[in-house]
Amino acid sequence: AIVNAGGTISHDWPLEQALETGDRATGVKVLSELYAEMKAAPIHVDLAALWQRLGVAQQGSTVVFHDDAPLAAVRRSIMRKPTS
To answer: Which of 11, 13, 17, 82 has its CA 20 to 30 A from that of 68?
Structure first.
């Protein structure tokens, strides 16, 4: 929805515009409300644990993917090429 509305790397959008566009696409104000709630309250993210749950690992100088990881389906969805 954001790309379809012109939000690409070729255009400099304010964050609020991208969030509002995403909210309109989902039909709920989840993105803008979540941002408003969390923007001033940084949290620690355990990236090593997240990569492991996604099934992303480094093997020497190569990145490998483990399809038996708990969030491997999420990783595949993120990496999937758009259908259109």
So the answer is: 82
Pairwise CA distance, residues 53 & 68, whole Å: 9
72-84 per-position pLDDT tens digit: 999 999 998 877 6
Among 10, 40, 35, 37, smallest CA distance to 21 is for 35
Same domain, 31 and 62: no
Quote the number of domains for the chain: 2
Q: Do 71 and 57 sit in the same domain of this protein?
A: yes
CA 56 to centroid of chain Cα atoms: 15
pTM here? 0.57
Q: At what angle do helices 15-26 and 30-38 cross, to 10 degrees?
A: 140
Range of the domain at 69: 47-79
